[in-house]
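Re: Re: ligand-bound prediction request (bumping)

Still looking for help on this. To restate: I need the protein modeled with 6-diazenyl-5-OXO-L-norleucine bound, output as structure tokens. Inputs repeated here so nobody has to scroll up.
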Amino acid sequence: MYRFLLLLLFFGATEGLFAQGKYKIQKELVAEKAMVVSAHPLASEAGRDILKKGGNAVDAMVAVHFALAVVYPKAGNIGGGGFMVYRDKNGNASTLDFREKAPLTASRNMYLDKNGNAIDSLSRNGHLAVGVPGSVAGMFEAHKKYGKLPWSVLLEPAVKLAENGFEITAQEANALNYNQKNFARINQHENAFVKKTAWKSGQKLMQKELAEVMRRIQQNGQDGFYKGKTAELIVDDMKRGGGIISMQDLEKYQAKWRNPIVFEYKKNYKVITMPPPSSGGVVLAILMQMVEDQPLEQMGFHSPAAVHLMAEAERRAYADRAEHLGDSDFYPVPIEAMLDKAYAKLRMRDYNEKKATPSKQIKAGKPIKTSEQTTHYSIVDADGNAVSVTTTLNGNYGSSVVVKGAGIILNNEMDDFSAKPGSPNMFGLLGAEANAIQPEKRMLSSMTPTILEKDGKLFMVVGTPGGATIITSVFQVIMNVIEFRLPLQDAVQKTRFHHQWLPDQIYHEKNCFDAATAKKLAEMGHSLKERSSIGQVEAILVRPDGKLEGAADRRGDDSAAGY
Ligand code: DON
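Reply:
Sorry for the wait, this slipped through. Here it is.
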């Protein structure tokens, strides 16, 4: 408790330092009734206002999603896709897949040169890298099923922000400046993101064309994006830039309801998370079940024993990911077998608690059926309905394609397919047949929007961006709360580490391990490598007194809003 108060003081006192422009960045918040935590304060506030007006969690989701597409253009989007995990106040759970898919004329070897080598730039930048966007269809579908307030009301905050502009934060200014060359090279027309002088924090970003698109979506729903003028502008831009998305691709796009991955952890926790085409849920389940019987709490947070155990679990689970996971509508992913507790145990049978197992000795298991940019937001409404959404353009600003006349930034999600077995994607992830390119197939994701129950009641809503590191970040934040008993703020703000099988390395954030721990891990045979920050977690915890505790990651402009 004392520690919690201290943290409150610390974040309270430094809030002024985070304040940018006219809005306040709120890292920590306790709310009586409802809460939104997202990557941008203006988006969190848009969601909170909808909740205050009597909107439910799904209404708030729509408002937050469209607002993020304006105020957080590097990852918030209408030109990308994502996943929603939903749990209503009675405990009924569902998931919605609005992941991008491969265009109809996509083909297995489309990113290979004459000699069969992958040309990375083709799947990462420009028009050929774009998957058919899913976000607008996802929002529309979720609202159709669960929404309470009128659709048009939910779009209004985003329309206003795009039309009137808003002041950018220092982080957004840096990101825009970093991407200027890409924007200019890929788009020959003027657009909102390119200007002659460098972007500075506090300057206004106006997106008039995007505002018009948002108005069409506001008036015509899904058709405002996938048909008519917006669709024509997207297809024209594709033709100009050598892309392959057609009118038919856009018209055919549908979001899909899918059965959630649900598993128990230590009897009193239930985890509800995303199935394929995300690898997130399956890999999270394997990871949690691999460590379930181990005394993590006694080992202690970031102790050599705990880091070793978790990294060893991660290396094995990521080897499975590379081999077995892909879009289950196209490839027989052995989901049930991989979720079996016995399978996780089997995968850990060669685990040595004293020594790292080199990744070259680790192959994917054989489950046999016995019976960098993305963003996340977490929402709980006053009735206790919860939404966990992770959405993405893939890289920062996606493919850097800004649709002429529409101001929409399009994704570069095609890079999440395996262009060729053994050829890593931009996150160094490998894939095989399961994730090969096929027309209309959805590319494999790591996004892991997750909701946890404790003793049958809503307990936690969590998720993060971070490419390959998404699953390990979600895993670690959950373990921080459940096993290491950290307060939510600490669980989110503390440093993180990551192992993904290959390369055979524990990546970690700066100052993650003290010298003694690093030495001990090296002695066990681990190779440690410092890297840039890992993840940007948005989490909500339901406290025993029923109040909601929000934690917005310190690593970005992330902010909580509630009432
Ligand atoms: O779906 C995926 O797994 C990736 N496209 C996510 C990309 C990402 O998180 C980049 N953000 N940092």
